[in-house]
Design brief:
33% strand, homodimer
Chain lengths: 193, 193
Amino acid sequence: MQKLKEKILREGRVQGDHILKVDNFLNHQVDVDFLNEIGQEFAKRFTDAGITKILTIEASGIAVAAITAQYFRVPVVFAKKAQSKNLDQDVYRSQVFSFTKDQTYQIMVSSKYLEQEDRVLIIDDFLANGQAALGLKDIVEQSGAELVGIGIVIEKGFQPGGQILREAGIRVESLAVIQSMVEGQIVFAGDAG
Amino acid sequence: MQKLKEKILREGRVQGDHILKVDNFLNHQVDVDFLNEIGQEFAKRFTDAGITKILTIEASGIAVAAITAQYFRVPVVFAKKAQSKNLDQDVYRSQVFSFTKDQTYQIMVSSKYLEQEDRVLIIDDFLANGQAALGLKDIVEQSGAELVGIGIVIEKGFQPGGQILREAGIRVESLAVIQSMVEGQIVFAGDAG
């Protein structure tokens, strides 16, 4: 998605060789108009896929998933990260290791909100090591629903998540794929679209 | 908001005398069409208020804030709860005690995303004891921006948050105010609109 690449080049900031900060439009401050363009792009790529539910993970996936869901006219379910008093006991659980926060946490989805008949699109802001996506995939499989694909705003192509998921046979659509960020220089993979 | 009250009565579940679960449309599974009606209602109530930014807190405020922001055409900023490696050092911080999770946590907003000229609308899914809203108010005040009001989807009128905020002179617009939930019976305050 050309406009996304331009926005990353204009507004993103690279820290070290691995961290790309896009918190001025994607995951701290949210540019809602731009998220609508992202949502439309996901809808275009997954048109006719029969999606019945969008699944994401709190917190930074929620905004992009909610805006995107408007173009599919389906509910969003967001996986929760910690045991809260208010959460149902009847849940699907998985473990996720976060390299950003250097810790393992449990994610949960109430079993009421994923059904065997569901055709699920996972949406997230970033794909790097793929841990969050693998945890969500695990939860979809537990529910018996079908994982139709994964829509990612920014994939870090130099980290293994995308390859792991694609080799597992999952359709991954990333709107921008970053090949490298060495010395602050963002290089996109040619096929990012 | 009559339609919200009806939805709460139809789909909400009361646990004990204090917990209302609306996680089938608001804060676990998200009914995006309905959130659009909520967003329009907030826009109607705060029309001509000159809002330049919507502020919320992760995680369950993000969906309603992002959808609502579409009707104001302004960015959303969501306060983050924990120190992540990726967050700026230059941040406003406040402390919030969560009765739901029985713990105190720190919330942070990067100072870049709240400016002195901003006119801020805080949006959140629930108002109960008001701790999250007071933390966000504190952050808005640190930034020098103006807190124009607080838009809440569901206010628990039998808990003190609403009174504390209104007595502090803040305009609080709650789309449904619950007066009591004794023995599973939801009673709305008459003036909830």
